[in-house]
Design goal:
The structure is a single chain. The protein is α/β, with parallel strands linked by helices. The protein has helices at 24-36, 82-87, 92-103, 113-119, 135-143, 168-178, and strands at residues 12-16, 40-45, 49-52, 58-61, 63-64, 75-78, 107-111, 128-129, 147-148, 153-155, 159-162. The strands form three sheets. A seven-stranded mixed sheet has the order 5-2-1-6-7-11-10. A two-stranded antiparallel sheet has the order 3-4. Helix 5 (135-143) links the parallel strand 8 and strand 9 (147-148). It is globular, with a radius of gyration of 14 Å. 49% of the residues are buried.
Amino acid sequence: MLFVFSSSICTRTLFIIPPERFNEDELFHPKEALENEGIEVTIASTKTGEIIGDYQGKVESTTLFTDVSSNDYDAVAVIGGSGTNDYLWNNQDLQTYLKQAYKQKVLVTGICAGSVSVVQTGLLEGRTATCYPVDVQINQLKDNNVKYVSEHVVAYNDIITGDGPDGAKEFGQSLVKALR
C-alpha cells in the first residue's frame, strides 16, 4: 500500500505510552523533533493523568487513545519502555486502533517495545523491522513473520520502527521526514 503525505508538515501526531514505565528518551527526543517543526504532539495512554517513566521522568497523558479517532492524526507512535511489554503488547484495543489508523493512511510507528506492538498487528508481516536488541523483542518479530535488522530506524512510507533510546533522535527525525 502506498501512502502519499502532503508536501507540507502535517500538524498532529499521537504518542501512545504505557500507563507507567515509558522510556523517557524514546518519548522526549521524538516529541522535541516534531514540536521543533511545529507538529502538535498529543500524549495518550490507557489512563489519563501523570505517568512516570522508567527513570522517574514525568509526562501528562491528556487522553485515552481509545477515546480519539486515529484519523484526527497524521501519525501514531507507540513509545517503548518496560511498561509497554506489560500493558501494550497483545493489547487488542491497541492492535485494532493501529490497524484502523493504517487503513486510514495514518503513518503507524513504534520504537523499542513499541515496535513489537506494531509488529503484533500483522501489518509488517514479510517485511523487516527493528526493536531493542534483546531476545524477548526479537523473538516477537520472528513469531510474527517479521525479519529483525540491527538498525536504529527502519522506515517504510507507511510504517516506521525504531530500536530504542540510542536511536530515539534518529527515530524522531525519520518521523519529521516522513510527514513532510
